[in-house]
Amino acid sequence: MTTESAPAPRAVQATAVRHAASAIRPPRGGQGGAPAPRAARSLRHRRAPAMLVTFDLLALGLTVALVAPAPWPPVAVLLQAAVQLLLHAYRGLYRTRLSPSALAELPALAGLAVVQWYVVAEAVAAHDPLRVTGWVALGCAAAVQTVLCFGARALVHRSWLWTTARHPQSTLVVGDGPVADRVVAVLQEHPRYGMRPVGRVVGADADTDAEKAAGPPTGDAPLPVLASVQDAGRAVVQNAVRHAVFTAPPEASPEGAELFSLFARHGCRVWLITDQRAVTRVRIAPLPDHVWGFAAHPLHAGPTRPVAGRAKRAMDTVLASAVLVAASPVMAACALAVRVCDGPGVLFRQERIGAHGRPFVLLKFRTLRPADAHESATRWNVAADRRMSRVGRLLRRTSLDELPQLWNVVRGDMSLVGPRPERPYFVQQFSRTYPGYQARHRMPVGITGLAQVHGLRGDTSIEDRARFDNHYIETWSLWQDMCVLARTAGSVFRLGGS
Fold this sequence. Notes:
18 helices, disordered N terminus, 50% helix
């Protein structure tokens, strides 16, 4: 566990789309600018995966009814359905794609069908040696299931493309230059991708230069240009924007991370659509996606795999709840010691900044009573404060003062592992001073993190911490979380707090 002590720092022809404007044109249909509820925003994106899951299960049921080796017990069918859903989800076959293709998915469907039938057949044979299935029967079953899944998915994808072309959703494009011009032109000319550009977000300097060089607009109506994060936020609300398209990685621009957090807060789907050669730090999906030849990558606020993200949240909830119960006697003793030695007010509450810039109230055992709210919000290092009692110093040295944050994890404010949260005053300072600091808010904050287990606690570099935090986000995995937790436990036993 950690503390917050550290030194205070110091192929399509592009349509001309640049046109300064103070307001975004309203969405089609004459609807008002009020944003739709978040559940309604994501309904369409959940519909296609739900249909794919349904048709996959139907294909499995038909295969079992037609060609499954007899007798095939009902328990085996249920096991096979679970294995199929897990394998398809792991392979990314239920992700919403901009250019879905059943032909591109065919090799994965065939390979996973073989694995699925072999695994279940081995499980059945292990339970009942008399039910041994030959390779020929397994191969025929896998082939039939592959054909059925392929046909059903082709229908679902065709229906999805038809629906998105008829009802494209409002989209903001973030970027400047020839690549951004071509991306906007492609989205305007090809509604099949479900995006209708309603504005362009560029930097203030780039906007000025563009106005001088753009010339008169041609083709489609020019897009309004938004030169600040505040303008982009108003545009998202007024136009019920559903998609945000970056034409360069968010960390490539000073305001990119802040824009990314803005779009994530409003429930927008965020994409990186650019030349493949420009993508250097983005993981390539198992099934590559594209927009008229441009590489398209979904950008997520946390783990790049939604299923793994939910697994991280489940792990946080289970482990934090278990540790809360197990550590309740220790926490009671800490609370009693603070009450006896330092008086009333056992818990210390302080506003911190979490994922996507959302504020929350962090809980700790009180080790020092600040003089006023201003000192609490703006004083950086209190480790050497003489007002701290022996109990407070012991709690900080052993990091036991961090234990109440387990309740923040259970509530969903924090994760067990992630970038450490900071106060709003210092977040603003650090975001202006250190490149990449704002980008660390792409993921839920944590009780401990990769920076802390590398010794970056106490009076250490904020720039180094931000670098480790962003590296953790870009290389995240559940195994990495387990390693960080194990190393954190070791540091606690070595009295690594401050």
